[in-house]
Design goal:
This protein is of the alpha/beta class. It has one domain: Rossmann fold. It contains six helices and eleven strands. The protein has an eight-stranded mixed β-sheet with strand order 3-2-1-4-5-6-7-11, sandwiched between helices. Helix 1 packs parallel to helix 6. It is globular and about 45 Å long. The two termini are 31 Å apart. The mean pLDDT is 96.
Length: 223
């Protein structure tokens, strides 16, 4: 098992890995004081694996289709993750519903990003649904994972204005820009020991967060 002084991170992906790339870049330039020890995908031949390879990061596939049950897959995934001894597991476009056993195993050290202002628009097709409802603002949320789909205590949200001529694609592009800003920031806080979860309560800098931090597209982020 690795014994790095820096906190260790394992990133789980299912696709192109744009948030993974944001984390790789932030770890590479020192904004994240931790090391990405492994990238694991539940799907073969996705672009995120190529990103890991280019960065010299261990990467592997644990294909969910090779397992008969969700529990069997999650057990194999836990074995794969734990081989790298991570302090933090980051879901970066990982498109699987996780079992309670998995979530419990990584309680307090399992983060997810979701492309909506939770609790609005849990699940899929968030941008289309936001446009159909005619909302003025949309965005993304980072939260600790619990057993509820896209539930768990929210740490931070970034908002973008919804424009009159937006399409799902244009809105998704602007939301994704914010994802790439705030996910490295939250991972930085965790690796610095500033962000914790205790009894379902998020703590940042030894103060409880009674509601998620809110940032706008042009809000400077804490260093």
């Amino acid at each position: 098992m690795p014994t790095d002084a820096q906190p260790g991170i394992v990133v789980l992906i299912s696709g192109s890995g744009t948030n993974l790339q944001a984390l790789i870049d932030a770890a590479g330039d020192g904004r994240i004081p931790g090391r990405i020890r492994a990238v694991i995908s539940n799907r073969p031949d996705v672009a995120g694996l190529e990103r890991a390879a280019r960065a010299g990061i261990h990467h592997e596939v644990i294909n969910h289709q090779d397992y008969d049950t969700r529990e069997a897959f999650d057990a194999a995934l836990m074995t794969g993750i734990d081989a790298h001894g991570p302090d933090l597991v980051v879901l970066a476009g990982f498109m699987r519903v996780l079992t309670p056993g998995f979530v419990g195993h990584y309680s307090g050290r399992l983060l997810n990003i979701h492309p909506s202002l939770l609790p609005a628009y849990r699940g899929l097709h968030t941008h289309e649904r936001a446009l159909e409802d005619g909302v003025e603002h949309h965005g993304c949320s980072i939260h600790f994972v619990n057993t509820e789909l896209d539930g768990g205590p929210v740490i931070i949200q970034a908002r973008v204005a919804v424009l009159a001529d937006d399409t799902p694609d244009t809105l998704a592009d602007r939301v994704q820009q914010q994802e790439h800003r705030i996910y490295p920031q939250v991972v930085r806080w965790f690796c610095q020991g500033r962000l914790t979860l205790a009894d379902g309560q998020v703590w940042l800098d030894e103060k409880p967060l009674h509601s998620p931090l809110q940032v706008e597209a042009d809000t400077p982020l804490d260093s």
